[in-house]
Every structure is written in C-alpha cells, then in structure tokens.
Amino acid sequence: MSDWYWMTAWLPSLLAVLGNGLVIYLVLSRPRLRSIQNRFTLSLAIADFCVGVCYYPGHAICQFLLNSCNKVIRDDIAVFMIYSSVSNLCAMAFDRYIAIVRPLHYRSLMTTKRAKLLAAVAWMIPLIVYLIPSVCASLGLFHINFKISVVIWTTIFEFFPCTALFLTTLQVIVISRRHCRRDSQRSLKWRRNTCSASVIGTVVTVFLLCYAVEVYSSFCYFTSICPRDEHIYNVVRFLVIINSAANPVAYAFLKRDMRRELDLIISKRSFIKTRSRRSNERSSGI
C-alpha cells in the first residue's frame, strides 16, 4: 500500500470509531431516541463503528506489529463489516422511503417487530452470502470459484445498492419537497417525517460519492476496458473509511432528535463547569 494511506487513514478511522461510538451511546442511553427510525440509525452506526475498528487497524497491525497474520481471514471480517454497513444503509433508506411515500400507513407498515426483523436481515445477508462461504473457503473447508463469487458479491453489495439507493433517494427527495410546500397544512409529525429526508439524502450522497471509485475499480477488475491501478485500490480503501466516518456527522448536524440530545449534553457540561468554577472562586475568596 502507498505511504500516504498509512499516514492519513488513521484519522478517518479514529473519527469513525469516536463518531459512531457517540451515536451508539446516545441511542442506547437516551429514552427519547429509542424510535423505530433510530433502530436503523443504531444498526448502521454499529456497522460503521466496526469498520473503523477492523479495517485500517487490522491492516496496520498485520503490516507493522505481527510477523505472522492471517490476512485472508482479516480481510474477510473487514469486508463483512463494510458490506453490513451497505446493507444497513439500504434498510435505513427503505424505512425512510416508506415514511415519506406512505406516511399515513407508516405505523402499520413499519412496526417495531418489523423494524427489528429488517435490521437483523441487513446483518444476515452479508453474513450468509459473504462471510460464511468466504471464511470456510479460506480455511479449506470447501472450494468456491472466487471469480464467480466476486462477481456475485460485487453485484449484490456494490452495483445493486448504488443503483437502488440513488433511485430511491431521488424519489424520496422529490416527494419530500412536494410535501414541504404544504407544510403549513400538515401536522408536526408529517413535517418530521418529511424533513428527515435530508438526513438519508446526505448519507446516501456521501455513500455514492465514496463508492463511485469502488464501482469504477470493480468495473476495471471485471473488464479490460480500463487499466487496473494499485493506486485506485488505495483510494478505494481510504474512501470506504471516509464513508463510515461521515455518517455520524450527518446525524449530529441534520437529525433533529440527535442534535437536541447533543445540545443538552453540551449545555449540561457547560453548566457544571461554570458552577464548579464559581464554587472554586468563592472558596478562594473565603
């Protein structure tokens, strides 16, 4: 790998761990954040947190610290986390699609039980389709045709998600703008569902920008139209980490309930520090 990757990739990895760790903490510790929508936010944050923990640190540990390292198994686990992030983003986009396109039927269509099931499916698909066969093949338990398998994995977790997310999010944005023009005649609950499109729109946009190079790299890998360049692979690895680091930023600045809880934490800590400082000043004056 290029030197620039080793020198720079640790920063987005750290941001992915800290940012997604904060999102996980907020959703689990704040009762007001335990909504159906935030179940998908939590699931995606866990996947992105694991990407930050496993991807670059696994490369660095095997490269610089360990003399012997099973790089195949390490890569299998890291790619599983990446694919889990992609499938969880698709689950979140599907949830927002129902909330925007069918707002009157959202509660009946997306129940708590169905939300849990959808989040579980988002983890099970990459586990069954990718991790189990890949690890078993790496351990020599059975043989698979990796060329055919890579085509299948790339189609399921790269080409199809990029196309589906683009079309779905585009429709969500168009419909949400149509609803926003009639905000004065709608309930607060409707407006919250409509304006939440900005969050999924931002997250999907970042995803598409980061994975555009990945799709191009995969296209070059499968065809002879464009040359395969090792530098592109390094860029792909870096952008994958960037994507996982950018998602919690979108939650913090665009998601109202998440931003409100962050403001409460910041204001509470500021109040405690101010009161502590005044108490020390009074004690010094005595």
Automatic annotation (TrEMBL):
Membrane protein topology class:
Multi-pass membrane protein
What GO molecular functions are on record for this protein? G protein-coupled receptor activity
Primary subcellular site in the record, as a coarse category: membrane
Q: Which UniProt keywords apply?
A: Cell membrane, G-protein coupled receptor, Membrane, Receptor, Transducer, Transmembrane, Transmembrane helix
For whether the record's keyword set contains Cell membrane, the answer is yes
Subcellular localization: Cell membrane
Question: TM spans, by residue?
Answer: 6-28, 40-58, 78-99, 120-144, 150-174, 195-219, 231-254
Read off the InterPro entries from this record: GPCR_Rhodpsn (IPR000276), GPCR_Rhodpsn_7TM (IPR017452), TAAR (IPR050569)
- Source organism superkingdom: Eukaryota
Q: Name one Pfam family in it.
A: 7tm_1
Residue ranges of domain G-protein coupled receptors family 1 profile in the record: 19-251
Q: Does the keyword Transmembrane helix apply?
A: yes
What are the coiled-coil residue ranges?
Answer: none
Q: Which family does it belong to?
A: Belongs to the G-protein coupled receptor 1 family.
Indicate what this protein is called per its UniProt record: G-protein coupled receptors family 1 profile domain-containing protein
The species is Pocillopora meandrina
